[in-house]
């Protein structure tokens, strides 16, 4: 089986300078938002540091709250009214993507296991996954319910 010829149905290729000109604002707002989100996460982890061998509460709550905020954002910009084309990359990918963290979560689990606290690491692994998914689901449902009540 061969792949269909996609050249005949695709749009003509734009020059590189034109592609860059349309993508540059998106890259810029993602970078700016990411810096804001990562700074907020860093500040929270300094304010509430994890104790050696203890449950990393700051990163846990950062990920849970960030997932809830993603749920609210996605309902508002996809179901309520169209947003400016840079809102989703700035807030969703940038700010909330920089705020939430999979890498720190994974490193925290590894540190807990390596330092002789595998049960805490396993609890953190499961609790974060369950709480983050529950948070995004609840935030999405609650946002829809609130917005439905506000409609005339």
Provide a brief overview of the structure.
This protein has 152 residues and is mainly alpha-helical. It contains five helices and no strands.
List its salient traits.
5 helices; mainly alpha
Poorly predicted runs are none
Strand fraction band? under 5%
Q: Percent range for helical residues?
A: over 70%
Count of distinct strands? 0
| Assembly state (oligomeric) | single chain
The main pleated sheet reads as: none
Protein structure class: mainly alpha
Q: What are the secondary-structure elements, in order, as H or E? A: HHHHH
Give a written overview of the molecule.
This protein is mainly α and 152 residues long. It contains five helices and no strands. The chain has helices at residues 16-47, 57-80, 87-99, 102-114, 118-150. The chain is globular, with a radius of gyration of 20 Å. The mean pLDDT is 89.
Please write out the topology.
Blueprint: H1 16-47, H2 57-80, H3 87-99, H4 102-114, H5 118-150
Helix pairs in contact: 1-3, 2-3, 2-5, 4-5
